[in-house]
Amino acid sequence: MKAAAALAAGLLHTASFAPTEAWWAQIAALAILFGLVSQATPRVAALCGALFGWGWLASGLWWLHISMHQFGGLPWLLAALAVALLAAFLCSYYALALGLTARWIAPGRLRLLALVPAWLLAELARATWFTGFPWIASGYAHSVGPLAGWAAWIGVYGITALAALAAAGLVLMRDKAWRLAAPALLLPLAGLLLPLDFTASTGRVTLSLVQPSIPQDHKFDPARFAANMELLARLIESARGEVVITPESVVPLPLAELDRATLARLSNPERPALLGSFLGNAEEGYVNSVVGLGSDYHYGKHHLLPFGEFIPPGFGWFVRAMNIPLDDQARGSHQRAWAVAGQRLRPLICYEDLFGEDFVQSAVGPDAATVFVNVSNLAWFGTVMIQDQHLQFSQMRALEFQRPVVRSTNTGSTAVIDHQGRITARLPALQRGVLEADVDGRSGSTPYARWLAALGLWPLWGLGLLTLIGLRKAGQ
Fold first, then answer.
1. Is 248 annotated in the active site?
2. Catalytic annotation, pick one of 123, 219, 242, 350
3. From residue 105, how far is each of 115, 270, 461 by CA, in Å?
4. What is the DSSP letter of 193?
5. Domains recognised in the chain with CATH numbers
6. What pTM does this model have?
7. Which residue from 23, 154, 156, 286 could staple onto 280, CB 3.0 to 4.6 Å apart?
8. Of residues 242, 301, 357, 400, which has the active-site annotation?
9. How far lies 164's CA from each of 155, 158, 236, 383, in Å?
10. Is 350 a catalytic residue?
11. pLDDT of 221-275, one tens digit each?
């Protein structure tokens, strides 16, 4: 019975993320899980954590199956098994955290409170260990809602802890432990009262965000390359903004191999453009990059995607089976923003924007970026859930650093997010066109940006560990 309830709660947890944005479901799902674990044996607690995590991550990441089966050529069953195994690996963090907490702390209210730091530590581990894979981390459900006000102070993982505290508060309220329940519920809501204005305007800039909507099976087809480049050139020529932004790898080959005539079509000396392509060579490796046409600017992706952009040791056979183009790439090296049109644009390529701790230095200091620019190609994964989820993550980055985030994608979601995390414009998925965006650049630093730049995520690690140790000692 507990196993079925934990699995169902994991599915409810998935429903809290975009496109539904039912933030309350995230807290409710954790409350169900914590209620199951607070009185359970260590073995049952670990099983509940595993089933909750598996239900959540298998249902929330099912779209990975599309890339492996439809575009990678893996048989349907093998692709489904790969997603199930990935979810099983990722849910081990939660099984371990909840099982050890149940082993260390006796059943009761102290254990219930200890589940809060245990959950935080599990989420931090998934976000950082083995290069990190924090997709749909629980705090992202609160890119909207009453906890969003905490983002500029404690970031997505701090919100993760507060959401877990609220979930524990619901269980305490059920048990009529009012003295503990009240602060556990009221502290997360205090975010509604926090000061939120930490940045100032640097003026407005008009950006043209290109969405070519080239099907993934056409993108790397040599027979369609000329037609794809002609389409891209026409979209760039139709742009009216001060700067044109194109998606990730919109030129799906090393830029050095692009013929001069095509490059000339894509370039306009009167309108700078950020072009997605690859830099490097076969000997030193190719780097997934964006290049500022008409300037010497370029940026290379630093945080690479396992299996898609670099091959973990021992998995070469699996990646080769999917025949992914440019599947083992080199890393970019710098975080410099592009000074253009009176602003400083900081590129983030695809899922790099999940790792705010990687690029926080671009949000502090006199040369900080004024606009974050995410360029992505999510055509590998279809349109259901994946695009809305990634847009939700960009909203959290905007809230954390109080910077606008603009997104140029191949098939969606191309959008504009202001510095308060609000989506102000968006192109529909699969619609070919250019989104003309009037963007207000921002300068200044949030409290979260300042302490993250100085200390990384270590304060949260320390808070989680010390709280867990303190509750264990209190229960002895």
1. yes
2. 350
3. 10, 66, 19
4. G
5. 2-196+455-474 (no CATH), 201-445 (3.60.110.10)
6. 0.94
7. 286
8. 301
9. 14, 10, 46, 30
10. yes
11. 999 999 999 999 999 999 999 999 999 999 999 999 999 999 999 998 889 999 9
